[in-house]
Design a protein that fits this description.
Layout lengths: L1 E2 L8 E4 L2 E11 L7 E8 L5 E7 L3 E4 L3 E11 L2 E6 L5 E4 L6 H4 L7 E7 L2 E6 L3 E9 L12 E6 L4 E5 L7 E5 L4 E5 L3
């Protein structure tokens, strides 16, 4: 058990039956009354941010998370199989850990960050940017590089993003997986 005196940015604690990361905190000692700690907490799984105030010296349960780089290998039934780069151990993660927002970017050979607690996977994090091939889109307009008009393009993983009119089928594009936005064409 840790107390509010042990708080630090990035610390993971158990709060209201869920795991949260301390984003920021401030110890406050008012002139009247007891001291307290004002915090901003981020839910590890949902990403929701909330504010909370703890009494000074209040006990909280600290959770140790281990982050590992793992390579996505293949899908097996409802599970997704990953390989640890260091131990070459393969683990299968159920659909409960792989949300639809993540599943639409699952490409074999891509490295993901996996957070573990007590030896079991807890959270799967996508890379912020991926380079993916466009498998289906309308023909490109070569001369139209100035307008901001876009068209839908289906990527090799099944995700659909909006791309500029000049981008063609078969090209590789860089995509921001957090916002589902086209960033640039990849030369090559």
């Amino acid at each position: 058990m840790a107390s509010t005196a042990d708080f630090r940015n990035g610390m993971v604690i158990k709060y209201n039956h869920s795991l949260v990361t301390i984003v920021e905190f401030q110890h406050v000692k008012p002139g009247k009354g007891g001291a307290f700690v004002r915090t901003k907490l981020k839910d590890v799984i949902s990403g929701k941010v909330l504010d909370n105030t703890f009494r000074a010296g209040e006990k909280v349960e600290e959770i140790r998370l281990e982050a590992r780089q793992m390579q996505y290998l293949y899908q097996e039934g409802d599970g997704f199989v990953f390989m640890d780069h260091e131990t070459y151990e393969q683990i299968s993660m159920g659909a409960d850990l792989v949300s639809p927002d993540i599943a639409k970017y699952m490409k074999e050979g891509v490295d993901f960050k996996v957070l573990f607690t007590e030896g079991s996977p807890l959270v799967l994090e996508l890379p912020f940017f991926l380079e993916l091939e466009i498998v289906e889109t309308e023909p490109g307009d070569k001369g139209d590089r100035v307008s901001a008009a876009t068209k839908p393009a289906k990527l090799e993983t099944g995700a659909v993003v909006q791309v500029p009119l000049f981008v063609s089928q078969g090209e590789v594009v860089k995509v921001d997986t957090r916002t589902d936005e086209y960033i640039e064409r990849v030369k090559g």
